Amino acid sequence: MGEQGKEFTIVLLGNPNVGKSVIFYELTGRYATVSNYPGTTVDVSTGRMQVGEHHRITVIDTPGLYNLRSITEEERVSKRILMESKPDAVIHVVDAKNIERMLPLTLQLIEAGLPVILVLNMFDELQRRGLDIQISHLEHDLGIPVVATVATRHEGIDNLKSRIIGVVEKRYSFEPMKFSYDADVEKKIDSVAAHMPSDAPLSARAMALLAMAGDEDAIDMAGNTDNVAAVRDIVGHADNNEASLAIARRRQETVQQMIREHFQQSKKPKKERWSEFMDHVTMHPVAGIIMVGLILYFGFYKFVAQFGAGTLVDFIEAGIFERYINPQVNAFFHGILGESIFFNLFAGEYGIITLGIRYAIAIVLPVVFTFFLLFSIMEDSGYLTRLSMILDRMFKKIGLSGRSVIPVVLGVGCGTMATVVTRTLETARERYMVTFLLALAIPCSAQLGVILGLLSGSFASLMIWFTVIVLVFLVAGLVLNRYTKGQQATFFMEIPPLRLPKPGNVMIKTWSRMKWYAIEVIPIFIYASILIWVGKITRIFDVLTWVLSFPAKAAGLPDKMGEIFLYGFFRRDFGAAGLFDLREALDLRQMLVATVILTLFVPCIAQFSVMIKERGLKTSLFIFLTVVPFAFLTGIILNQVLTFVGMP
Amino acid sequence: MSGAHELTMVSAPLGKRLVVSAIDMADARAFAKISALGILPGVEIELRRRGALILFEVYHSRFAIDRQLAEHIYVREL
Fold it and tell me: Are A438 and A607 in contact (CB under 8 A)?
């Protein structure tokens, strides 16, 4: 690409939590397109950096990775982008205060012969700890450009841009540091490198180093089967462990030496008492749980459920749609389509505009917005990782790791998005289990809003509902853990310092989630309206409603509930809203049974379609066909128990 | 790989400066994760909290890891 005029490609790379995406936004001005990496479901953002008239630079933002020897699918994608995009510059972003831990990856990149620029981001946090780095010396030792930035305050970005230009135009003369390993390790590297083809994406030496660390991609790239077998033979040998440890140590020692020379403690670090106290509270086994309770109450119940699902929804739904938009739309389509069946496709009770779009904008959007805002605040402040720690103990019991906490919590906002986020989980086993639990036991916020409204009259019944759902979650988890093949994933997570969330970051995060939601989920509402229309005119719905009325009756509910359960599939919240209309006709026991079944009953159509995309049709159908009878069975049992204890 | 008297991160004392003495490499995947965190023999760490997870500091970051991983990391007091 480089030769053809002024078209360049650069790749952003680095650990998670180093502010890589903020740098990406600073460079590209927020015009990013997000797309799947071919053959995977991992999102990769691509943007354009415009510097003057003459430089058109494509910037690729990669998922966070710790090491080129990849563990998760996301890390693998980052590595492959690095190998395949033939970048004109690789921007390795590190957290300045953590340079000692992150620099080995820089060395790996340098060894791979890539044009690396090292960015020491969050430089202010380093200085606040009384530390300093002599950048020019570091630059001299590494032989690559080094830039200090505080991306959230735009500091150092212009400098970074001009360094990028210098590198892509090949005006910077790299003098990459060279370092060698012990003689026997070198011999081993050479013998592996000899089997690497000349057209490998990285240098033969770099490929050999990766292969020796056990990187499957690097081994496979040895080309023909003979070479792959030969590499496997060397790499599988018992002394390879020693060699790869020696390599990792050599890199580490090189880094430590550099750090000793160029890293200074200039003044005493300031103790941040407040932050230490909050750390203590949020991670304490008892205080931490109380904290979770407070967030549940104020964050979810007060803010998302009461303000988002209550006040905002009422305003948009009753104040705007029912008063102004729906009458206009109905009148308009009545004018051109009359009383035909096509009128009902667009308007009327289940029309694309009067139902699909109204639901998307009036009922779901406010709930999703308030939830994502809360979630982004928890994420940006660093609280989310602490929540994972607190809940890890419980999650371990059902065979999940603390990493699963994030998709499960996100599922309380939107199960569809949460199902997508299961990609960040390490093993297929864990991805499957979380997908299943999301489909079964996690109510999304749209649903939650209505359910909380329905049961708000009786705190006791709200608690019964909550207890039943938690029990189902745990029992389902235990059963899944027992019968799902594979090993339990081990868990590690970086716990970044707690900090006040930055409004700018929170807005970017909330906005990008809302945008995703608008693009991915809202069209599915519209298809759902069309399906309901088809279902109604072909009378298929009447049959399904009739079928569903039997288990409804078995759980002590009126026939009409069959219809509500059916609509619940098209929009979970819609089922709950149907229940809302019926609330006068139901007693408290029936109300409880109905809300429990609705919560457990099949995921909505949007979530189901994402499940198929992520987990495949077979698995998704299996989950679907397990969840439906399970939901009714729970309802039937609950009805029996409540009747037995004498609930009217 | 190590004598029975050596400590792993699961049993080492909290709040003391420790140095990683060895890493059990039998499990290649576990080793890849551990070394990705920058934990290698010779690196200093400090344990901060031990519950279902073990919270520790390495360089200037904090990590939480589970016992299954921590069992692979041998340490001694400085």
Answer: yes
- The DSSP string of A129-165 is TTEEE-HHHHHHHHTS-EEE-BGGGTBTHHHHHHHHH
Measured between alpha carbons, how far is A493 from B55 in angstroms, rounded to an integer?
A: 10
Is A494 close to B61, i.e. CB distance below 8 A? yes
What are residue B64's DSSP bridge partners?
A493, B55
The helix (run of H) or strand (run of E) holding residue A241 is: helix A240-262
Per the prediction, chain B carries an average pLDDT of 84
SS3 state at B41: coil
Contacts of A389 in chain B (CB under 8 A): 53, 55, 64
B73 three-class SS? strand
pLDDT band at B4 (very low <50, low <70, confident <90, very high): very low
User: Does A120 lie at the interface with B, CB-CB under 8 angstroms?
Assistant: no
Q: Where are the alpha helices (DSSP H) in A521-587?
A: 522-537, 540-554, 561-570, 572-581
- Sign, CA torsion A434/A439/A441/A444: positive
A chain contacts of residue B58, beta-carbon cutoff 8 Å: 101
Radius of gyration, alpha carbons of chain A:
28
Question: What pLDDT, in 10s, does the model give residues A583-628?
Answer: 777 888 888 998 899 889 877 788 888 899 889 999 999 999 999 8
Amino acid, res. A549: S
To test the contact with chain A by mutation, choose from B19, B35, B44, B59 the residue with the greatest count of A C-beta atoms within 10 A, namely B35
B 29-68: CB under 8 A from A: 29-33, 35-38, 40-43, 49, 51-53, 55, 58-66, 68
Q: What stretches in chain A show pLDDT beneath 70?
A: 1-5, 30-42, 238, 266-272, 350, 449, 571-578, 580, 647-648
Three-state DSSP class for residue A469 = helix
d(CA A150, CA A152): 6
Using an 8 Å Cβ cutoff, are A407 and A418 in contact?
A: yes
User: Distance from CA of residue A504 to its chain's centroid?
Assistant: 20
- Token code pair at residue A85: 């995009």
| Strand order across the beta sheet in which A146-148 lies | A32-36, A43-51, A55-61, A7-14, A89-95, A116-121, A146-148
Say if the Cβ atoms of A98 and B61 lie within 8 Å: yes
Nearest CA among A333, A335, A336 for reference residue A345: A333
Q: What is the ipTM of this complex?
A: 0.88
pTM equals 0.77
Q: Hey, is the C-beta of A209 within 8 angstroms of any chain B C-beta?
A: no
Tokens representing A505?
A: 């970051």
Asked if the C-beta of B14 comes within 8 angstroms of chain A's C-beta atoms, the answer is no
Strand partners, A226: none
**Chain A contact present for B7, CB below 8 A:** no
Q: Output the six-digit token pair for A509.
A: 């995060």
Q: What is the pLDDT of residues A126-163, one digit of tens each?
A: 888 888 888 999 999 999 999 999 988 889 999 999 99
Q: Which pLDDT score, from 0 to 100, does residue A4 have?
A: 46
Are residues A9 and A58 in contact, defined by beta-carbon separation less than 8 angstroms? Answer: yes
**pLDDT score, position B76:** 92
Identify which of A12, A194, A216, A217 has the alpha carbon closest to the alpha carbon of residue A114: A12
Nearest CA in chain B to A241: B25
Q: How many residues does chain B have?
A: 78
Closest CA to A350 of A367, A332, A326: A326
What pLDDT does A410 receive?
A: 87
A1 close to B (CB below 8 A): no
